[in-house]
Amino acid sequence: MKYFMLLFLSLLLTTSYAEDEKKEEPKEVFELKLKDGTILKYHTIVCNPKKPKFGLRIKGPSGGRIIKFSQVNMTDLPADFQKKIKAYTKKQNEKKLVLYKDEWNNRNEILLKTDKRFSYKKLIRRTGNNKFILENKSKGVVTIGVRWKGKGYETTAEPGKKSRIVGLHNGDYTIYVAEESEDKKFLNVTRYKDIKLNNVIYTLMYGIKVGAKGGMKGEFAGQIAIK
Q: What mean pLDDT value characterizes the chain?
C-alpha cells in the first residue's frame, strides 16, 4: 500500500512538473513600431478593419493593448493584415466610405469639409431653434455643407429624399451643395450665400429650375477632385 502511494505521488509530481514546463515554454516575440517611434513587443495580434479605433489588439510580455489604425504605418503590419485591410478598404470605398480619423466616413462629406476653400475649424453646436431642409430633386446623391461663423456641418441626401439639419442658431449662413460630375472624377460645388435663419424652417430644393417654389439661384464655387 505504501509503495502504491509513493508511486502515485511520483506520477503526480512528474505530471505537475511537465505541465509547469509546458506553461513556461517561451513564446515567440515580435515587434511593432508605432508612428511616434514606440516599439511594442507582442506574442499575438488581432486585426479588425471594421472598427479602426480598436483596429489592433495585441498581447505581449507586458500585457494587452489596443492600437488605433492611425497610430501605425500600414506597411509595418504583417503582410496578411495588410491584405485584409486593403480588401476591406476596397469594399468600403465602393460604398463611398473612406477612413478618416479612425472612422469610416462618407467620402464626399470628407472631401467637402477638408477642402481649404470650404473647410471650417469646429462643428456647429446645434442648440438653436432653426431647421434647414434640403430636398434633393436631382438624379444624383448630393452632399450639403452648412457654414456659420467659421463653423460647419455636413450631411448627405439621396435622390428624391430630404436631409434635415436641426438646431441651427439664428444668423446668416452659407450653404454648399456638392454633386458628382458625370465622369465621377469631381465634385461640383454650388454655393448659396446669405441665407438668413431666424426661428424658421428653411427649405431649399436642389435640382429644380431657379424661380420655382423652393428653387434658389446658387453660384458655382469650384470642383473637388475625387481621389
A: 88
